[in-house]
Amino acid sequence: MKPPRNPRRAYDADGNEIPPVTVGQSLADGYRTAMAYCEAHDCGHGAEVPLKGWPTDLPVPDMALRLRCSKCGGRRIRMMANVTELYDRAHGAGKTGK
Ligand SMILES: [Zn+2]
User: Fold this and answer.
1) Is 3 a domain residue?
2) CB–CB of 40/77 below 8 Å?
3) In degrees rounded to 5, what are phi and psi of residue 45?
């Protein structure tokens, strides 16, 4: 029997857990923040969470366990890569004179 699935993990077609990205990996990839979204019904509040200060070996999805929605106080949080940050970088924003 397979172990129960973790709702904060992704699984491939065979049901094998896909290793989550850690805080350290995200920082190495150039991310400085992650997006946290509240999953509460009728809330959907989203916030940028700085990656700095979190343990580098902590899986980014598990940051949700220590966060609470600042709008409704809900604890059902989903973590996402901050694609806005990636977009800004791809379009040359935020460069510091290289
Ligand atoms: Zn909320």
Assistant:
1) no
2) no
3) -60, 135
* Number of structural domains in the chain: 1
Distance 10 CA to ligand 1 centre (A): 23
Distance 4 CA to ligand 1 centre (A): 27
51-82 pLDDT per residue, tens:
999 999 999 999 999 999 999 999 999 999 88
Separation of 65 CA from ligand 1 center, angstroms? 14
C-alpha 40 – ligand 1 centre gap (Å): 5
User: Tell me, what CATH number does 56's domain have?
Assistant: 2.20.28.10
Q: The whole model's pTM is what? A: 0.80
Neighbouring C-beta atoms of residue 37, cutoff 10 Å: 17
Query: 35 is in which domain, residue-wise?
Result: 20-89
